[in-house]
Amino acid sequence: MIDRQRAERAFRAYTARYDLNNSMIRHKVEHTFRVAGNCERIAESLGMNGEDVAFAWFLGLLHDIGRFEQVRSFGTFIDSVSVDHAEFGADLLFRENLIREFLTEDFPEAEMGLLETAIRQHNKLTLPEGLDERTGCFCDLIRDADKADIFRVVAELPFEERIGTSKGLFQEGEEASEAVMDCVRAHRCVPRALRKTRFEGSISHCCLAFELVFPETRRIVREQGFLTRLLSDRGADGQPLWNAKECAQLRTVRREIEAAFGEPLDEA
């Protein structure tokens, strides 16, 4: 059903239209293949058949297709000041028919709706009600796989490379607001409207861990260690990253994530 070689060739041909010397573009290509690999691993952990594992990988390959034009047109990955990248990518694929570059003619038409829904919903705070079991499973899968690599992206990439032209949206501030910490204690993601400072943005990225659905995703996150790095109060040079109050809040975030996981974040 999925011709992986054809799909990867089509993806590389599409992204070659953009400036691969631009670090934001280059990192998004790397992110795409990491998410596709996460999708494959999670699908295998669920005992999916070969076709569904390939479908999961394919979903990872396409989930962020809207990001490339977003960067070229707006210079940012911040949807609120540009476009909703998931909606934009789904429109490119299914309304402008870009999807045909990635698929063979025998791809089941019945699977198109599932593919489109999963791509459109992968960045939303919550999934819509009423999804059938199969669609809901693949939506959860791509959202998990994406979050698992977002921890790496935030931990490894400089703030300016992730934010681009939108860095002025984030204030320098002190500890996180009580509204943000209420989200932490409730084990839920932080709504965009509550994130005002860089520190609150960092906490909000960590809170993605509360939304992880599958045990395999949590294993991936623990193995990679990027979430643990985000929760550290010191940088690679050993210097403090935050003040004392912020460090105390980070310890609270870590404690709540470990409670949600039911195990320590550090590998034994």
Q: Give the N-to-C terminal Cα separation.
A: 40 Å
Main sheet?
none
The overall number of domains is: 2
Strand content: under 5%
Helix proportion range: 55-70%
Order of helices and strands: HHHHHHHHHHHHH
Q: Can you say what the CATH homologous superfamily of the largest domain is?
A: Hypothetical protein af1432
Count of helix runs: 13
Let me know the average pLDDT.
92
The tally of beta strands, per DSSP, is 0
Q: What is the subunit arrangement here? A: single chain
Q: Which runs of at least 5 residues are low in confidence (pLDDT < 50)?
A: none
Provide the structure class: mainly alpha
Notable traits:
268 residues; mainly alpha; 13 helices; 59% helix; 0% strand
Please explain how this structure is put together.
- With 268 residues, this protein is mostly helical.
- It folds into two domains: 1-166, Orthogonal Bundle (Hypothetical protein af1432); 170-268, no CATH class.
- Helices cover 59% and strands 0% of the residues.
- The protein contains 13 helices and no strands.
- The protein has helices at 4-15, 23-45, 50-62, 67-74, 85-94, 110-121, 133-156, 159-163, 178-185, 198-206, 215-224, 226-230, 244-261.
- α5 (85-94) packs antiparallel against α6, α6 (110-121) runs parallel beside α7 and α7 packs parallel to α11 (215-224).
- The model has no long low-confidence stretch (mean pLDDT 92).
